[in-house]
Amino acid sequence: MVFSSLTFLFLFLPIVSFSIFIRNRSLQNMILLLASLIFYSWGEPKSILLLCLITALAYFSGILQERLKETNKISLRKSVFIITIALIIANLFIFKYLGFFTKNLGFLGVKEITLALPIGISFYTFQILSYSIDLYLGKIRLQKNFFYLLMYVSFFPQLIAGPIVRYETIEQEIENRRITVNDVASGLRRFTIGLAKKVLLANQVAMVATTVYAGNTEAYGALMYWIAAIAYTLQIYFDFSGYSDMAIGLGKMFGFHFLENFNYPYIATSVTDFWRRWHISLSSWFRDYVYIPLGGNRTSKIKWLRNILIVWILTGFWHGAEWNFIIWGLYYGILLLIEKFWLGKILNKLPKALQWLYTMVIVCIGWVIFNITDLSQLLFALKHMFTISSVSLMTSMAAEVSIITGLLFMPLAFLCAMPIFARFHFQNEVLDTAVKNILCVILYAICILFIVSESFQPFIYFRF
Questions:
Q1: CB 211 within 8 A of CB 387
Q2: Which of 89, 103, 239, 349 would you label with 414, given CA atoms 20 to 30 Å apart?
Q3: Is the predicted pLDDT of residue 384 greater than 90, yes or no?
């Protein structure tokens, strides 16, 4: 089930929303847990068992570790912790990466193993890992109620495609949260904005890149391949940030306050700045649980280089078990090192417009690498972006007229990726809220019209 489906908008969400009026937190939590399990099992009922088993592993391991801590059996507690982390990661490896390794080891006679990838496994695995690690380090308290821990892991707003919510963020809100009218209204507005990003922008510009990369290569020249790269750059931002907005809005409706996941990444003036603004929950996760434990930058220069490259290879591999994701991770790891050692000083002397242009060219190329999993097609697309061609834009559009709609939406998408509209507000708070509510109602109605009339509703990050 996706947030932009009619089933979710007119059946699931209205029914679950009644739980807002329940004052008994235990009962409300049980309803939210049941709703989350139904939401997840809607398309993949078998996968719910795996999610519950991994959560149970973290739960019982946590209880055992706390008891060993009380009896001062520190070494045994550490062993239990290491085994738990290893098993959680092994589960992710088996379902997401085993097929990749067996496929690439085929020359050794290894038979390829193909397993269905459970939706959202990368996201909920990282949430479970953060709970287990933070509990071991004493940053959070043991959750003694298994169903509450399961609710944290499976909570439907952020279960499928993030943001990655750490247990410490909502630890107090699981049992002691306050749901106000303002929170519900603010959450609904945020949800509507995210829905509009997805339905009105991401879905529309998506047809450009989809058509170009899957179409007749002779019909498209360098200009069209750059337009396709820009279209995908806009699509993935509005697709993913739209989902994050919807997740944050839904969480707020039910009394949970998730941290922001995006901060206008396309106004960044360097690659370093871009990654401070894009998928913040993932970047901070790798920083806190991989980069810093490896030594961060408080070590020798060689180890520091190693740490950065390890983090970015893992970041790329986290997104998918394909070579293009590894290349994408290395691409950014190397670029970040170049900026830190040399290019950053030069960039700071340039006008902001040139800094921004440099960053966006780098980001667009990066998204091409991210988007195309077939390496031969990837090389072909990159080659054509930098090859002078005589194919005109009109010829390309005539080859496939369906991309015209996407092209028309691209300027609007570009404007919405900038913090232009966020700066508009009325001084009178009552008037400002009233206008925002009216605009969101109109926006919601327009989204419904688009959803009813279209069938193309993919979420890019569902595959991760």
A1: no
A2: 349
A3: no
Number of Cβ within a 10 Å radius of residue 70: 9
Q: Which of 257, 279, 319, 384 is an active site residue? A: 319
Q: For the chain, how many residues are written? A: 464
Q: How confident is the model at residue 376 (pLDDT cuts 50, 70, 90)?
A: very high
Least confident window among 26-35, 368-377, 453-462: 453-462
The model's confidence at residue 221, banded by pLDDT at 50, 70 and 90, is: confident
Cα torsion at 134, 140, 141, 145 (round to 10°)? Answer: -70
Q: Which residues contact 205 (CB under 8 A, 6 or more apart)?
A: 231, 234, 235, 238, 406, 409, 410, 413
Task: At 217, list the tokens.
Answer: 């290569």
**Number of neighbouring beta carbons within 10 Å of residue 147:** 15
Burial code (b: 16+ CB inside 10 Å, e: under 16) for 104-124 equals eeeeeeeeeeeeebbbbbbbb
> In sequence order, what are the residues at sequence separation of 6 or more whose Cβ sits closer than 8 angstroms to the Cβ of residue 334?
309
| CB-based contact 171:135 (threshold 8 Å) | no
Contact of 132 with 58, CB cutoff 8 Å: yes
Q: Alpha-carbon distance 196 to 389, whole Å?
A: 36
Tell me if the bond preceding 163 is cis, omega within 30° of 0: yes
DSSP 8-state code for residue 112: P
319 given a catalytic annotation: yes
